[in-house]
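Researcher: Sequence recovery benchmark, item below. Answer with residues only.
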């Protein structure tokens, strides 16, 4: 176990401002002379744009600009993290409900809203493709024109991409028992408390874009691309977002706001309403078919998956979600033969964006539910069938990828013990358990700069976004320990591409591992400089000096790093500057472009009761256990795990986007779209950690924050089956769905 601040529950940096309302989010920042922007949309999921008449809007006092596709370069600039297919604004055709066809800028928000209402859009509503079946029909219209598709065999279909993974020979595998099922996962919204917001200001020196983005440097690249400007002319300022959960990873409306700022010569400001946010981004939905074969003793023989992810009108990260989630379809289990066919399917729906778990909850829902059904068919305990097949540390559960990197059995047994697995339950009450595993980042590049000032205070510069995971606190803890200063003398600077060094992205639970290592290496760069200062000051060879964790060990004495630095810098003062880099290069021959940096491994177990008259579920005890390597800040780990568990309850029990037959979203906003409230929480919620310091991050840490929602749904479904005997294969497990299943079962 480490000493000092690392490994202890330090107060969160920025926590006071968040709970008192003093935190300045993007919507709290006002630019002088900024124009207010309002989007113009049509009430259709798919429509041909015939004409746009903005004459009435331009007559409204205060209106300064109405932008349509006609005001942008031809061909229309397009962007996207994986596919360059999303237009800056709809051109010729609206491809999802909420896609903007025009944007109005005015001196006041009220004038912009009034002007947007009177922009006349003539359009022809077209049949929308909104389901997997619609998209795959032989006579289906193409969601995307061939001109913006990548060449290949799929160009004349609505399959954006297809992946075929696996090993062994499923068809030749000999199984005593085969279990199969089809499982559905609906679309959901991220529902961050802070809506998406964007601002831009351009002048002769370039453009500054403010955004709630999680990846500032990716936004910088996108803006430079669509404007055809050098990166050095694009500055991105990204204040700490008020929640992201993946929904704020990639650019959306920033290119439009940038073009408007350049055209008008005035700063632009757009803060979406909650309703608009619902239609700007969503989580993927999926339909997954699973077949599993077993020997009579429960040993897995094969797993066979057909995963169809509905990713929306533009590629965004839908292909990456489909690939990375499907790659681990077989989970953490030893399986001789595995076949995985995965497709990302285009539809006239909101583009998919990453969501906490990155598609792993979808495949975990199917696999773990099927595994629970298999245990029943084999008359085995659901816990024992999992332990029997679980990979042990150092074993490859996916050939050619990172072996199991933890004592995973400890995690599973801890969850089972904490839930009281195997003890009797009264009628109507049941227990369920499920195991989730998610790859950490497969590539990565993070830089950090650390400055040790002459007075012993420290500045840490990081391109990571602190969106709730507490990255500022973790980096401060590392710097404080490595340089031997009190944590309250450390400041962490983030969120401005003109100030902080490059970070690839803030996602995949990478912050503590990749940027954490970059901060650690920057501090050790300073330690190396301190060794040189000490050698010169004491007339010693550097080999005689050991600098570590805040101290300088000389042959006959021990000094604090800060004291050595003060003496060495002398009257002129100054500072020591350390740089750190953490790089995980791509592996071109790997299907995902690289192996997993680490795995987030979790076991979730629940005990619940089902009201047989109404189908409502009460969760009496919810236990989640994660393999974290080392908890750098235990209270933050617990907060992340508790929060993820509650999000998991939402998508398991209530959350789903509802569309009408024409593809329009019908349940936007906080009233018609349910998320968990205090009344929906488990009566007992416990999060536990397994710490073996066996991760690749500082001091043995692994990434956390997604694990606790990876398999919430199948754990609950297993408990429902245990309680009342019904099998649920479609989410959410609403009271009505459970009630109907019980009626059909009786």
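Model:
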């Amino acid at each position: 176990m480490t000493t000092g601040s690392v490994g202890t529950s330090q107060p969160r940096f920025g926590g006071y401002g968040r709970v008192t309302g003093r935190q300045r989010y993007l919507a709290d920042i006002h630019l002088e002379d900024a124009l207010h922007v309002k989007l113009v949309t049509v009430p259709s999921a798919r429509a041909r744009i015939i004409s746009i008449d903005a004459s009435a809007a331009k007559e409204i006092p205060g209106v300064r600009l109405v932008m349509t596709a006609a005001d942008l370069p031809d061909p229309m600039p397009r962007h996207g993290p994986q596919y360059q297919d999303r237009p800056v604004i709809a051109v010729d055709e609206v491809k999802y409900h909420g896609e903007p066809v025009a944007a109005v800028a005015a001196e006041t928000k009220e004038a912009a809203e009034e002007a947007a209402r009177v922009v006349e859009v003539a359009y022809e509503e077209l049949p929308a493709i909104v389901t997997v079946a619609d998209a795959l029909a032989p006579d289906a219209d193409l969601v995307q024109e061939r001109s913006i598709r990548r060449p290949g065999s799929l160009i004349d279909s609505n399959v954006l991409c297809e992946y075929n993974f696996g090993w062994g020979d499923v068809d030749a595998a000999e199984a005593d028992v085969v279990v199969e099922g089809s499982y559905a996962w609906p679309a959901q919204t991220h529902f961050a408390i802070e809506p998406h917001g964007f601002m831009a200001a351009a002048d002769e020196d370039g453009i500054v874009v403010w955004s709630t983005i999680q990846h500032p440097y990716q936004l910088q690249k996108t803006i430079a691309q669509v404007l055809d400007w050098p990166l050095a002319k694009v500055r991105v300022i990204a204040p700490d977002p008020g929640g992201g959960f993946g929904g704020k990873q990639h650019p959306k409306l920033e290119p439009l706001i940038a073009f408007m700022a350049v055209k008008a010569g005035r700063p632009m400001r757009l803060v979406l309403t909650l309703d608009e946010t619902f239609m700007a981004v969503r989580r993927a939905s999926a339909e997954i078919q699973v077949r599993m074969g077993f020997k009579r003793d429960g040993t897995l023989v094969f797993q066979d998956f057909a995963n169809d992810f509905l990713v929306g009108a533009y590629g965004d990260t839908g292909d990456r979600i489909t690939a990375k989630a499907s790659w681990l379809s077989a989970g953490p289990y030893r399986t001789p033969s595995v076949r995985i066919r995965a497709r990302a399917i285009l539809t006239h729906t909101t583009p998919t964006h990453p969501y906490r778990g990155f598609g792993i909850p979808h495949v975990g829902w199917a696999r773990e539910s099927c595994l629970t059904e298999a245990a029943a068919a084999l008359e085995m305990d659901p816990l024992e069938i999992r332990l029997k097949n679980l990979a042990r540390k150092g074993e490859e559960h996916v050939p050619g990828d990172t072996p199991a990197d933890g004592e995973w059995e400890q995690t599973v047994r801890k969850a089972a013990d904490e839930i009281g697995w195997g003890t009797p339950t009264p009628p109507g009450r049941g227990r369920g358990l499920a195991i989730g595993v998610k790859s950490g980042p497969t590539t990565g590049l993070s830089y950090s700069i650390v400055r040790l000032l002459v007075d012993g205070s420290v500045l840490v510069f990081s391109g990571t976004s602190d969106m709730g995971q507490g990255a500022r606190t973790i980096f401060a803890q590392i710097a404080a320990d490595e340089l031997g200063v009190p944590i309250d003398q450390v400041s962490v600077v983030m969120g401005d591409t003109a100030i902080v060094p490059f970070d690839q992205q803030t996602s995949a639970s990478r912050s503590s591992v990749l940027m954490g290592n970059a901060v650690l290496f920057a501090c050790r760069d300073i330690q190396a400089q301190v060794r040189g200062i000490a050698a010169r000051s004491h007339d010693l060879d550097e080999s005689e000096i050991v600098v570590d964790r805040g101290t300088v060990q000389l042959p006959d004495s021990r000094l604090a790093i800060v004291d050595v630095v003060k003496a060495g810098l002398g009257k002129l003062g100054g500072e020591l500057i350390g740089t750190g880099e953490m790089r995980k290069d791509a592996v071109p021959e790997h299907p995902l472009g690289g192996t997993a940096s680490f795995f987030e491994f979790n076991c979730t177990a629940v005990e619940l009761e089902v009201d047989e008259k109404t189908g409502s579920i009460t969760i009496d005890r919810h236990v989640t256990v994660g393999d974290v390597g080392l908890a750098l800040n235990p209270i933050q780990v617990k907060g992340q795990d508790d929060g993820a568990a509650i999000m998991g309850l939402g998508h398991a029990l209530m959350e789903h986007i509802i569309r009408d037959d024409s593809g329009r979203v019908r349940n936007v906003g906080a009233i018609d779209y349910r998320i968990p409230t205090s009344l929906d929480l488990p009566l007992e919620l416990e999060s536990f950690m397994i710490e073996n310091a066996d991760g690749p991050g500082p001091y043995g840490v692994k990434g956390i924050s997604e694990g606790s929602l990876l398999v919430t749904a199948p754990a609950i479904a297993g408990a429902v089956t245990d309680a009342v005997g019904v099998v649920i294969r479609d989410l959410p497990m609403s009271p009505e769905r459970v009630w109907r299943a019980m009626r059909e079962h009786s």
